[in-house]
Every structure is written in structure tokens, then in C-alpha cells.
Design a protein that fits this description.
The chain is of the alpha+beta class. Helices cover about 40% and strands about 20% of the residues. Strands 11, 12, 13, 14, 17 and 18 form a six-stranded mixed sheet that branches.
Length: about 575
């Protein structure tokens, strides 16, 4: 049996069944042969009479020669007549212009042979006369048909077989495309680097598609340039022909809208920016599709041929599928890299947060006649609020409650700088106002124009009888004396804005059970789910409720009142609280 492309997609059993059923309808003998005349199927005999002759030694030789002859020169009207009277007609089975195989019909005359003719044929082919005469009598005079009917019959059978071939070929191609996409998806889902992913993609495209070369360009969102990231079978000279900006490329811009863009001839297409380079590279036709995944387009993939070529719908679909898989792999790779970077940064932030927490006093210092309490609640791991104390010996105890503009890492770094400056200048300053002015000048030199700090700085005398303070743009501290609330406003503007800002200070002589509360604006600006602020009034009500507690309890209760108000809503600002209670007359 000969080799034939027909058998690649139409099974021999299916071919034989189709032949047998059509032969029965036409009452004629049918063969399906390769283009070289060798049989693909077993013959379907139109009658026992024909079978006896065709299977005899001499008949088989004549039949083989007749098949080769009629296949070598097939025509609509011509036929090859065998010695015993059968006429052979051949019809090609075509697909996409190619001849896959040949259908040959064997037709006998409508008038059955006489007894003498049957005896002559039997003697000629070495067959039993009695058996052949008996079969001759059974021949149906209606078998076969007019030449035109025979041609239509052969064409119908050829078309049906060609259709079966085309359908099977398309199904097999679709399955192969699915296997390609699946295999590529598995390869791209590994832990390769981004360059490995893209190089693997372009190489695989050239392997599975009838193209010369393939290239992937990814969009640089900052510059708008489509940057070559992977290429297969293109020269360095071609790749270095010049930059490709998305806004200047009609082909790539169209691909970014989701279209597949066909290039019939890159040498003459007006959309091609470098046609001379295409000629030197031997590039003719091309196809460009977007690298898209879930609505996000990150680049394009192009394929090129060395001669004019019209891409089929299935080839375009395959390239789109590969492009989608590659885009998904690139996006996932980027997300994985970003996640790793984010996790690394998060670990660093957590470590910095732990360091920052250690910078805050674990508990307030002891001071004769004064009880101190503190509370701290950052919005993020790192905060811009802080409080601190500095023991100035016989001058007393410095206290600070500050709020650095912003949140997160930048605010935390500035907070550390302010804290260090506070500690350094506290021991050198001659007064609270002098301390604040020193800090203001340093922050003015060390910070940007949009960076500033609000703070309250105070100094308790060694015996705890006086409190000298300066308010640098901070929410006013509250002095609770008996049932009266007084705001402590003396000071000046925020730190770090005007280098020569003059700050004032005020000294308060403390009485027994006086309570001083210093908070950052995170207390009054805290919001619940309805975007309603905690506000000054609720804050003062909290002070009134808890004013008889000791200083640490007051600080904690204020914080808990704010937390109960906010609930599960996101806290928008850091909170820092310092409370002092005078214990002596």
C-alpha cells in the first residue's frame, strides 16, 4: 500500500466504509488510489462478475496497469478501457489545491454480455466458464449511468472525502495548537527569569508557525518606547535600526487596541518606518498581535516571513494564545518580583518600627511632685509622632510631644532626627524658648520646604512646682485645674519653616491635682466609619470623665475612648499622649 497524505487525517476504516457505501449506491466498482496509482483501499466490486475477472492473475495485472494509466492522465471525458470491457474513470481528491489521492470508478456496458462473450472472457482470464456465465446473467442493466452522472458521482465522493480530510486536519491543527499553548503555559509557569521566559516564547513561535523570525517588544511606560526584549532569527543590525515609540508606530498602536495587524509586504508598506532594513533582513510579510492579559497590554509580539504569506485564522488565533500566555507570565513575574520587593521592604519597615518603638521611653521617668503617663498608637508600623523626656539635672526634666508632618518611612526618619536634635540641644539650651529656636533653625536647614514639625516642649522644675512650656504650632495642651480647662497657647509657629522665627515661653506654677494633657492631632482628627471626627468636644469630655485618675490611667483612657469611637475604621493619623499630674501643694 502506498503512502498518502489522505491517510494522515482520514482513517483507512472510514475511507473504506465511505467507498463501500457509495459504490453500492452507484452499482459500480470503486477504488481509492494514491497519486502513484497504488491502492489505498480494498476495491469495492460492483458485481461478482467484475470481481472474478479483476482478481484473476491476468485481470489483476491489467487492472493495475489501467489504474496507473487513468491516474497519470485523468480527464473529465476520457477513460481507459480494459480488455474485458470495463471502463475506468478517475477523479482527484483535492484539498487547498493539492491532490491527496484519486478515486477510480469501473463502469461496464449497460447490456450484459452474451453466453459466447462470457465464455471468451472466461477462457481469456482463466476463469470457470459456468461460474462466469452464471454471474453474467445477474448483471443489473441499470448499473453505472451516463458519463455525466458518473462524473458527478465521482466529484461528490471526492468532495465528501476531501471535506472529511479538511475537518480532521483542522481539528488536529486545533489540538496541536492547544498542546502548544498548554506546553508553553507549563514552561512559562516555572521560576525562570523574565529574559528566559521571553526567549523561550519567541523560539517556540518560530518552531510551531511557518515564519522566519519572531520578536517581542515590551512597552516602557516612562518613555513610551517599545523595547526589544526577546528575538529569534533576526540580525543585530536589524535590531539596532532605531527606537520604536508607540505613538509613532501605526502598526503597534493598532495592536495595542486589541487588533491583529497584518503586513503583506514590509518592503513597501507605508506603515513600516524602516523598510530598507526589512529588505536587507529578507523580511516580507508579518503579523503583529498584542501581549495582553486580563485587559492589560504590555507590549507586542511580531512574526515575519521571508516571502509573501497570508496568515490563516487559526495561525492568528495561535499567535494570540501564545501572546496571552507570555503576557500572563510577564505580568505574574513582575508581580512576583514586586511582591518579593514589598516583602523585603515590609521586613525592613517592621525592623525599623521595632527600633522606633525602642526609641520611645518604655515608661516615664520619676519626678518629685509629678506623676507622668504616656500612650502611643502609630497608624502604620512606622509613625511620625513621638514623645520623649530628657533629665537636665538641677534644671529639671524636659518633656516633648511632637508630630512630624506625614506618615510612614519618611516621617519616621524625620522623627528620629528631631528626637536626636531635642536630646542634643536640651542639655545646652538656657531656656525652653532657646531650645525651640535651636531646633527650628536646625530643621530649617535640614528639611525640605514642605516638611515641618509641630511640638510642645516643656520643662518641669526639679521640685515639680513649675512647668515652663513653648507651643510650636501644636494642638494646645490642656491645663485642668479644678473644674476649669485652660489651653496653653504661648509659643510660635511650626518648626522648620522660618529660620528666624522667635518663640516665647510661659511658666505655670502648679497646684495640687493640676493635670496637664498634651496630645497630637491624631486624637481629635480620628474618624469613624461615617467619616465623623472624634473632635475637640469629645476629647474634653473624656478629660472630664477621667480627670481624677492618675496620669498613666488618664493617658490610657483617652486612647481607649478614641479607639472605641473609631471602631474598626482605618486610623488616619498617629496618636501620642503625655499626661502630668501635680501631687503636692
Amino acid at each position: 500500500m502506498t503512502d498518502s497524505r489522505l491517510l494522515d487525517f482520514v482513517g483507512l476504516h472510514t475511507l473504506q466504509q465511505t467507498q463501500d457505501r457509495f459504490a453500492a449506491l452507484g452499482r459500480m466498482t470503486v477504488w481509492i488510489c494514491g497519486t502513484d496509482g497504488e491502492l489505498l483501499t480494498m476495491p469495492t466490486w460492483g458485481s461478482r462478475y467484475s470481481e472474478l475477472i479483476g482478481t484473476s492473475p491476468r485481470g489483476a495485472v491489467e487492472l493495475r496497469e489501467g489504474l496507473h494509466k487513468v491516474i497519470a492522465e485523468p480527464s473529465d471525458d476520457g477513460a481507459v478501457t480494459l480488455n474485458e470491457g470495463m471502463k475506468l474513470h478517475a477523479k482527484p481528491i483535492r484539498h487547498d489545491g493539492d491532490v491527496l489521492a484519486m478515486i477510480v470508478l469501473g463502469i461496464r456496458a449497460h447490456k450484459p454480455p452474451t453466453i459466447d462473450e462470457a465464455r471468451r472472457v472466461a477462457d481469456l482470464y482463466g476463469i470457470s466458464q459456468d461460474e462466469l456465465i452464471a454471474e453474467a446473467g445477474k448483471l443489473n442493466p441499470l448499473r453505472g449511468g451516463a458519463p455525466k452522472d458518473i462524473q458527478r458521482f465521482a466529484e461528490l465522493l471526492a468532495d465528501i472525502i476531501a471535506t472529511l480530510y479538511g475537518q480532521s486536519a483542522r481539528i488536529e491543527q486545533q489540538l496541536e495548537d492547544l498542546r502548544t499553548v498548554h506546553d508553553l503555559a507549563e514552561l512559562l509557569s516555572g521560576s525562570q527569569s523574565l529574559d528566559d521566559i521571553l526567549n523561550l516564547t519567541v523560539r517556540r513561535v518560530v518552531e510551531v508557525m511557518p515564519v522566519k523570525a519572531c520578536a517581542i517588544r515590551l512597552l516602557n511606560p516612562d518613555t513610551g518606547e517599545l523595547v526589544i526584549r526577546a528575538v529569534h532569527n533576526l540580525s543585530e543590525e536589524y535590531l539596532s535600526k532605531g527606537p520604536v515609540l508607540l505613538k509613532d508606530s501605526r502598526i503597534d498602536s493598532a495592536a495595542f487596541t486589541g487588533r491583529a495587524v497584518y503586513i503583506e509586504d514590509a518592503r513597501t508598506d507605508p506603515r513600516i518606518r524602516y523598510p530598507d532594513n526589512a529588505r536587507r533582513e529578507g523580511i516580507v510579510s508579518g503579523l503583529c498581535v498584542p501581549l495582553s492579559f486580563r485587559g492589560q497590554t504590555i507590549g507586542v509580539i511580531r512574526v515575519y516571513t521571508s516571502k509573501k504569506y497570508a496568515f490563516t485564522e487559526s495561525e492568528e488565533s495561535l499567535l494570540r494564545s501564545i501572546a496571552s500566555q507570555a503576557a500572563a507570565a510577564v505580568i505574574h513575574h513582575r508581580m512576583r518580583s514586586e511582591r518579593i520587593d514589598a516583602e523585603r521592604m515590609q521586613r525592613q519597615i517592621e525592623a525599623a518600627g521595632q527600633i522606633q518603638q525602642r526609641m520611645l521611653p518604655s515608661k516615664p521617668p520619676m519626678l518629685r511632685g509629678i506623676t507622668l503617663g504616656c500612650a502611643y498608637d502609630p497608624t502604620l508600623e512606622l509613625g511620625g509622632d513621638f514623645y520623649d523626656f530628657v533629665n537636665a539635672g538641677d534644671r529639671g526634666l524636659f518633656v516633648c510631644n511632637a508630630d512630624v508632618m506625614g506618615k510612614g518611612l519618611g516621617a519616621a526618619l524625620l522623627m528620629a532626627s528631631v528626637r536626636a536634635a531635642f536630646r542634643a540641644h536640651a542639655v545646652q539650651s538656657v531656656s525652653v524658648a532657646d531650645l525651640v529656636q535651636r531646633l527650628n533653625r536646625q530643621l530649617f536647614l535640614d528639611t525640605n520646604a514642605n516638611e515641618f514639625v509641630t511640638a510642645v516642649f516643656g520643662l518641669f522644675s526639679p521640685d515639680g512646682r513649675t512647668f515652663t512650656y513653648c507651643n510650636a504650632g501644636h494642638p494646645p495642651p490642656i491645663l485642668f485645674r479644678g473644674t476649669r480647662l485652660n489651653e496653653l497657647l504661648t509659643g510660635g509657629m511650626v518648626l522648620g519653616v522660618l529660620a528666624e522665627q522667635v518663640y516665647e515661653q510661659e511658666m505655670i506654677v502648679l497646684q495640687k491635682d493640676d493635670v496637664i494633657v498634651i496630645v497630637t492631632d491624631g486624637v481629635t482628627e480620628a474618624m469613624d466609619f461615617q467619616k465623623q471626627a472624634y473632635g475637640q468636644e469629645r476629647y474634653l469630655q473624656s478629660l472630664r470623665r477621667h480627670r481624677k485618675l492618675d496620669a498613666p490611667q488618664i493617658a490610657r483612657q483617652i486612647l481607649w475612648d478614641v479607639r472605641r469611637f473609631v471602631g474598626l475604621a482605618f486610623q488616619s493619623d498617629d496618636i501620642s499622649i503625655v499626661v502630668a499630674r501635680a501631687n503636692r501643694d
